[in-house]
């Protein structure tokens, strides 16, 4: 019953017919991951499609100098692996739990025997894939800029859009899902540079650095001005 409720509440799956939902609920796997656990590795065989049920997953690659580059952060309802199963390709990047997370795992067999023949599933996957192309354009914009202030400002604005919580006073609270090293990996900067830029933003009154890595955005307009 719990798995059926999960299917009904998951955008990619809720339009399946009752028979397919019943079959899927009997074969669905839900796995819990702790922060830092690998959900999949670069060049692993693609045996599952993953849909985020809760928490957050970072999609990253290892650069030639050994640094990690975070490309995307996936949260509830985001999926990864559908194209890999469709093309019988390996995973290109690493998928790592950024927080304690629950992930819906759909096997290659269920994907090929059931989901790939469902028009509603394919339509929703296509819509989300096009939205991801737009995110790719934002990724290029975020990583190609040279100015450090602009990189950090863009990164903070992205995090607000992804997971920021608007406070009663109009500020935005970013929960401490990423440490400074990971924020550097996300923005394409060294940890020391990120720390220095955040301190500068705090001195300017744009943000407030809170305990345990949380950040409060006090002046969103000023951050946006830095990205122009």
From TrEMBL:
PROSITE patterns membership: CNMP_BINDING_3 (PS50042), HTH_CRP_2 (PS51063)
Domain of life: Bacteria
SMART domains associated with the record: cNMP (SM00100), HTH_CRP (SM00419)
Domain Cyclic nucleotide-binding positions: 12-132
SUPFAM superfamilies: cAMP-binding domain-like, Winged helix' DNA-binding domain
GO terms of molecular function: DNA binding; DNA-binding transcription factor activity
Keyword terms: DNA-binding, Transcription, Transcription regulation
The protein's name: CRP/FNR family transcriptional regulator
